[in-house]
Design goal:
Chain lengths: 220, 220
DNA sequence: TCAATTTTGGATTACTCAGTCCAAAACCCA
DNA sequence: TGGGTTTTGGACTGAGTAATCCAAAATTGA
């Protein structure tokens, strides 16, 4: 019998099994934190890509042994996909954290677009792991494409809600189609990510973020 | 002595050497067209990326033998960089071909942004080789980053000229900063490329292209 | 036809990779 | 303490890689 330590770490399966006295003997527990190891792998994959990250690189970044990795995460492909899932989840969380209680939805949008002016050059150079994944493996790994489609739908829905909120506060004209505008903002966001990764100056990135918001406001 | 067949194919070195009777003997000429082989390699690299393209894949795509490839192009890395150069040159040429004699610079800009609505899904899924290169190797291959910076400067300058032309025809307000607007359009173009690669619908891509131009026109 | 030279592609090399195996260490409960 | 179980990491495996070697084929001018 094998155990999925992902669930174990969230406390579902293990608790019930222990309560039912399923285990006669408790064996040596894992010496590492699954989530920490995953985060380490995520960094390596983000920085080097899938093929670029060797198992050795991954083990060093995860600070665990070879067999521990295979036992815990399956194979390299499964580990990569789990990292990508994790990245999207964190990224999404970052977005929602910024929604907060800002009374100006347009300022929130600007905050999204201007994020590259607040990041270090090194962070900008790493780009977005989701975009890196699509441009490299979108054609060859169906899971990557599926994940991208899913994420795009969720992000655009969230952006559309922000734009509708901006229309309620009067910051944007009601005649603007919220769905189209959200697609526009999303494309701008992706474009800025690539421009930042390609080494565009902080000034240029700031200008484009400002210009995009100003353009939205000017639309009738 | 070795010969750079790139220049040979353009007829500079070989002619002078022949005229000077440098060769006592003419040996067997190459049986393949260098540019055709390069184009084949470009397709493979574009579709599969650098690591994803094995030498076998490349040879099949180039329709030449192993040793011919190494003799003619150096090694895999050199071949990739030459393909990337070639891609950027072709891409740039495509842009300038569309400048033509259209009396509306704004229509030309719209033509750029709407290119993804005219391409097949397969073409959109391949994305832009330049973006694919930056997102995958921008950090690890300095030549890739340098090439991207160079290309960005040239494309933005060209876009700025278009925007200034649109201001002359009265399509855009003079108060708009041409440099900022060109950076904005470039970011939109990159964003659309990624959105298209990620599987965005033709309708969404068309909407964003239209919206971007309308937003430009609305700016004061 | 022949000598000189180059192209060509199959065989080979040296290396890296992802993934498996296994024995020893670590840990728990009784 | 000691039996039972799991973790752990070094050694290993087999496949696949980029790049080199080399001998045969091809082509030229004389």
């Amino acid at each position: 019998m094998t155990f999925d330590y992902h669930y174990v770490s969230h406390g579902f399966i293990l608790d019930s099994l222990v309560q039912n006295n399923y285990f006669r003997f408790m064996a040596r527990p894992k010496e590492f934190d699954r989530d920490a190891a995953l985060a380490g792998a995520l960094q390596v994959f983000w920085a080097k890509g899938y093929e670029g990250a060797s198992t050795g690189d991954l083990l060093k970044g995860m600070k665990i042994g070879r067999q521990s990795m295979y036992d815990t995460f399956g194979d390299k492909q499964a580990l990569y996909l789990e990292c990508l899932h994790c990245y999207h989840k964190l990224d999404n969380k970052n977005f929602f954290d910024h929604l907060s209680d800002n009374p100006s939805p347009l300022e929130v949008l600007h905050g999204f677009l201007a994020i590259f002016t607040r990041r270090s050059e090194a962070e900008n150079a790493m780009g977005c792991m989701g975009i890196n994944a699509i441009t490299a493996y979108g054609q060859t790994k169906p899971e990557v494409k599926a994940l991208a489609l899913n994420t795009a739908a969720r992000v655009e829905a969230m952006l559309a809600r922000l734009i509708e909120a901006a229309q309620k506060t009067g910051e944007l004209a009601n005649s603007v189609d919220a769905d189209v505008a959200s697609s526009f903002v999303y494309a701008a966001l992706q474009g800025l990510t690539v421009r930042a990764q390609a080494g565009a100056s902080r000034g240029e990135l700031a200008d484009v973020a400002d210009f995009t918001i100003k353009a939205l406001k000017a639309m009738r």
